[in-house]
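Morning run. Coffee first, then this:
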Amino acid sequence: MARHANGWTLRLPPGRHVYLVRFQHEGRTVERSTGERDRGPATEAAARIYAEVTLGVVAAAPAASTDFADTLGAWIAAYEIGHAADTSKVVEGYARGFVDYFRSIDRMTEAGFAAYMRERIGKVTRVTLRKELSALRQFRDWLAAERGVRLPSVPSVPKSGHAGTRAKNARRRKATVLTPREVARILAKLPVRGPRNGVAIRAFVTVCWETALRPYATVARLETTLHYRKGSHTLFVAREVDKIGNERHVPLSAAARAALDSVCPESGPLFPGVDKDAMREALTTAVRAAGIDKPVSIYDLRHSRLSMLANAGGPLPGVSLLAGHKHLSTTSIYVQASADAARAALGAVAPRRRRTP
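And here it is:
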């Protein structure tokens, strides 16, 4: 047994092959495995463990739990019951990040959470970090309710500070807003069917534009009889095909009905085989062929449609229903005001001149 000058002891118990580190912390004896068989690496691991516990990065008393990844997996399984598949998939991605960073519940301390925030703000935006911390907060609450593990509160992102770091492939900060005429040119240049799997590309993009629904979370998952019947004037958006589980009936334009009727089978998906990469490639080619010199994605059609409807005088609650937002404040983020809309607003309240007899 060898005592280090800084206060910890490295020891190898009889019959054991892995070194342990022992030290006193807050009046208690703490003993942890270094996970190392050789004295050199064990010494380094002991120093790290001692520093983490005394600084509060790791809890002194290990939480009673099984493998961390398995525990997170159990939480994700419970989370999926009450949330849409797309939302659960995003949260599952956050959970993988928690496994990589924390590695064990013991590291989920007040200091550990603070260190996580400092590291992540250098890799993601503040908005993304807020979402990650929200997921981490829900996991913490689940641990307390289901496993009896009590952990400190997960902090919130300060209102001001580091702006965060955007990923290279992140979505643009501001959507490209297209005019109805530009969209008509793009639709005319799209192929009716995809050359690889025969998916109805033009009908799919038309429905996305006319309804302003989420392309892949909703439109790509629609099925006949369940969500739409041929000739119907409305589309039923079930909870299962909405990102936030906002179930509703959406009125359809004549162009949307024609596009849906053109692909509507007797049963099954309306747009089977929709592939994001193929759709992106087809849309990029069509934009170029339409002579539009600006970046356009399938999501820009949603932004453009919502902006057009709002700027044309459509009631914001109605636009919000189409978008599938629960709060009008969310819809307002999508709407980009135009000078024409401003002039129309002023004209609506301007005093009218009386006609002289």
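The two ends are 111 Å apart (CA to CA). Good start to the day.
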